[in-house]
Amino acid sequence: MNKEIKRIAIVRLSALGDIVNTAVMLQFIHERFSHVKCEWITEEVFAPLLQNHPLIQAVHTVNLKKLKKEKSFTLLKESILSLRSLGEFDIIIDMQGLLKSAIVARIIGRNIHGYDSKSAREALSSLFYKNTSSISYEENIVKRNTFLASDALGFEISDEMILNKKPIFPYSLYAGLQKDKKNIAIVIGASWESKKYPKELVAQLCDELEENCIIIWGNDLEREDCMWICANSQYAQPAPKCSLPELINLISSVDLVIGNDTGPTHMAWAQNIPSITLFGPTTARMIYETPKNIGIKSSSHVDIFKIDKNDFSIKDIQVEEIVLQAKELLK
User: Fold this and answer.
1) φ, ψ at 204 (rounded to 5°)
2) Hey, which residues does 212 pair with through a beta bridge?
3) What is the pLDDT of residue 3?
4) Which end of the chain has less neighbouring CB within 10 Å, N or C?
5) What angle do the packed helices 16-23 and 263-270 form, to 10 degrees?
6) Could you tell me if 11 and 94 are in contact, meaning their C-beta atoms sit under 8 angstroms apart?
7) Do residues 282 and 307 make contact, with C-beta atoms less than 8 angstroms apart?
């Protein structure tokens, strides 16, 4: 990396799980270039996860969802002026590879590094970059993220480094967990219905685990499912409504996390907590598997270039298989 580079902008707007799987690179950048200041541009809703992170100098936000909904020229102008006011960055890394993230990066500055047209999720995004990296879109998501960052900055992030990573986010231990049983967080939400393990099977899972199962929910519909599960299993209890920092604290304090392919489940890997991720319409490409962070995939075939959101095969994953893996991880 050019020794003159002192200020980096990281563009990763969404979603929660993708931000979690991108933030791993921060510690490696810091270890290699301790003088570099990293600043992060993200969607406003995810800012609390990144604020107060010791390796992030500043968090800057955009609200593209509000822009899309209100179609306000004034709001658009204010957003552009806010991004342009950030000052000069030595390098801008677009970690997302979408047209919207590339446009945001281009508003900030010109020296942008991103995926080439064959590697990006949206090929047109590469037109906005000064320099590009090539890595198969089918590659593991964490490896894609770390490769792009390290290639942009001219150093290597190895599998050994990822396996031996420190917890990605700062945390405080969560109070109120049981001491006479193992504490297992179960994440029941997801961005699509077909990614969700059915609530009836979650209740059965809690019964067969016979441990303290804390049901994590994120909105009113998920809370309804959570309360149904708790009413149908004596081993299930609802998690409180959590902010993103509070969720990190909870995840970082339990013995095991079981959940769908979604952000809170990915937090377990981020914090070096054992986890089981359940996959129906997606694959284990979305996690970095380790001896204590594993995935269980349904038998359906997945085309990652054309995800079938009507693939509800996650319901075919047997509760007994999850229980067997959970008991192994809890030993």
Assistant:
1) -65, -40
2) 183
3) 53
4) C
5) 10
6) yes
7) yes
φ, ψ (nearest 5 deg) of residue 178? -75, 150
Helices (H), the chain: 16-23, 25-32, 47-50, 64-70, 73-84, 99-108, 141-153, 159-163, 199-209, 220-232, 244-251, 263-270, 319-330
Which structure tokens are listed for 321?
């298989």
> Model confidence over 92-123: pLDDT tens digits?
999 999 999 999 999 999 999 999 999 999 99
| Token duo for residue 92 | 């801008």
Domain limits, the chain: 7-163, 183-330
7-163 with 183-330: one CATH topology?
A: yes
Q: Which residues of 171-194 are buried (b: 16+ CB within 10 A; e: fewer)?
A: beebeebeeeebbbbbbbbbebeb
User: What superfamily would CATH give domain 7-163?
Assistant: Glycogen Phosphorylase B; (3.40.50.2000)
The CATH number assigned to the domain with range 183-330 reads: 3.40.50.2000
pLDDT one-digit tens code per residue, 131-169: 999 999 999 999 999 999 999 999 999 999 999 999 999
**Order of all β-strands in the sheet with 212-216:** 236-238, 212-216, 183-187, 256-260, 275-279, 293-297
* Rounded-to-integer distance, Cα 57 and Cα 311, Å: 41
